[in-house]
Amino acid sequence: MQTTSSPVAVVGTGMMGSSFVQPLLQRGVRVIVWNRTASRCAPLVGLGAELAPSFEAAVTEASTTVVSLWEAADLLNLVEGLPSGIRLDGKCVVNTSTGSAAQIRTLEEAVMRRGASLLAASITNYPMHIGTDAALIHYAGNPQVWEQRRDMLEALAPAGSVYLGSDVGLPAVMEVPCAFSTMALGMVSFIEGAAYAASQGVPVKQVAASAVRLLRSLEFEINAMAEKISDGDFETDQSTVDNWRHSAGEFLSVVRATGQPAHLLNGLVEALDHARADGRSAQGLTALFPALRGSERHRAGEVH
Which of 15, 57, 195, 234 is the most exposed place for a label (fewest CB within 10 A)? Predict the structure, then answer.
């Protein structure tokens, strides 16, 4: 396959980093790979990637370096550990490693001191989804840099590459509602419920079939709740916080009676109690939003 003239380095070839390589190669991109344990790059070299002998070699050779390490602090250490004379003028570093908004902004400063730009990214999917329409990746950073790299980066999430603006901290913010509150908690909630149902003789696959049907209404409900919250409308003609609390409390007792801890169901009860204490018993579930949102100081962005 003919490759493009602008090489891309992939730094960190664990499960997620490795998943970046094939979609880029399929776009005709020349891909350079580096990992502290060089042997982890061998399968990727077999696909057509080139092995860099060091982080310095990778980041100086490539026009764009896509990084997937354990955490953003690891990338910061690599950038700050480059020899003092190394400049990365005109280059771009795309960080997908986990870090808080404040940590990513600090990373941007370090990258910019070397003359490069940072695009921050957060990934909401498993490695197997990279390169497919199921992938969702949020990006932020300099808009011109984003537009220059957009076509290449869309190879990783063809239908789900979402640009949030210039603030590189925003993809880290989006990790909470998307990767954790929706994806991770959704999956663990299913597991918790399925564990209880299985203890009562219901096959897990039957639970899954019913849960999947509920996803259709959940899509509608999420959009409807977002609309109501945006309008400041917390009333309901369907089910109040008190209704939900009564039912959830009853089932929490039932599940715990089987010896299961019901961690997430207990979390729901605590959230509903928080809203009731805030005087929102007769309102709908959307009333949890103002009850849980936090103080003015937090909303103003003083705490990250």
Answer: 15
Residues of the chain with pLDDT under 50: 1-3, 295-298, 300-304
- The sign of the dihedral angle between the CA atoms of 253, 255, 261, 266 is negative
Do residues 120 and 139 touch, judged by C-beta distance below 8 A? Answer: yes
Which domains does the chain show, CATH number per domain?
Answer: 8-169 (3.40.50.720), 181-291 (1.10.1040.10)
Distances from the Cα of 209 to the Cαs of 143, 204, 212, 218, 239, in angstroms? 43, 9, 5, 15, 25
Give the pairing of strands 137-141 and 161-163. parallel
pLDDT of 13-60, one tens digit each? 999 999 999 999 999 999 999 999 999 999 999 999 999 999 999 999
Q: Is the Cα torsion angle 11, 17, 19, 20 positive or negative in sign?
A: negative
Q: How far apart are CA 8 and CA 261, in angstroms?
A: 47
Give me the residue label for tokens 């979390």. Answer: 267
**Exposed/middle/buried for residue 229 (C-beta within 10 Å: 0-12, 13-18, 19+):** middle
Give the model confidence (pLDDT) of 161-195 as tens digits.
999 999 999 999 999 999 999 999 999 999 999 99
Using an 8 Å Cβ cutoff, are 128 and 18 in contact?
A: no
Count the Cβ atoms, other than its own, within 10 Å of residue 64. Answer: 24
Residue type, 132: T
